Amino acid sequence: MGKPGQAKQVFRTYGCKTRAGKKVKTAEKRTKPVAPKLKKGLTPGTILILLAGRFRGSRVVYLKQLESGLLLATGPYSVNGVPLRRVNQRYCIATSTKVDVSGADFAAIGDATLAREKTKKRGGKDAEGMFAEAPGKAGPSAERKESQKKADDAIAKGLSADVKQYLKTRFALSGRQYPHEMKF
């Protein structure tokens, strides 16, 4: 019968783990996951509405899909304050509005460029380590600022005044508005 609350597997095995006689692949031997398929209607230059995160409700311009499967999008920063960002396609709505991005150079931008820098943990049980001054907040690197400027300049030049205004306005729903009944 067993004791109440008893664990399902009492005995643990260490070392090479097996499942029903098959060896489990180690991390080095596993293949990298394939990037997910793109949503219908996503082409470079499509305007997206972000649904989650710091910039939720903002409209951004889709640039490309990164190796990880995330989408690369920008405000442009000079227009609505949204920097180059990685966006999960589950948390965005593609609109029917398109923008010309042919002059923009964003081929060099990848997941590594947009990843956060690893910070060393504060530590130490001694008095100096416990009350040590916390390092200041690190802003975007010079490389990231340069790639932001390079990508944004070409896009912002080709925007008309009404499209700029459209990108600046935030998306919001009011009473009796249902997103599944809307045409974006």
Q: Which descriptors apply to this entry?
A:
single chain; 184 residues; alpha+beta; five-stranded antiparallel sheet; two-stranded antiparallel sheet; 5 helices
Q: Can you characterise this structure?
A:
The protein is an alpha+beta fold and 184 residues long. It contains 5 helices and 7 strands; from the N terminus they run E-E-E-E-E-H-E-E-H-H-H-H. It has helices at 77-80, 111-114, 127-130, 142-157, 161-168; strands at residues 18-19, 22-23, 46-50, 59-65, 71-74, 85-87, 92-98. It has a 5-stranded antiparallel sheet. Strands 1-2 form a two-stranded antiparallel sheet. A hairpin with a 2-residue loop joins strand 1 and strand 2. The protein starts with 17 loop residues before the first strand and ends in a 16-residue tail after the last helix. The mean pLDDT is 83.
List the helices and strands and how they pair.
Layout: E1 18-19, E2 22-23, E3 46-50, E4 59-65, E5 71-74, H1 77-80, E6 85-87, E7 92-98, H2 111-114, H3 127-130, H4 142-157, H5 161-168
Antiparallel strand pairs: 1-2, 3-4, 3-7, 4-5, 5-6
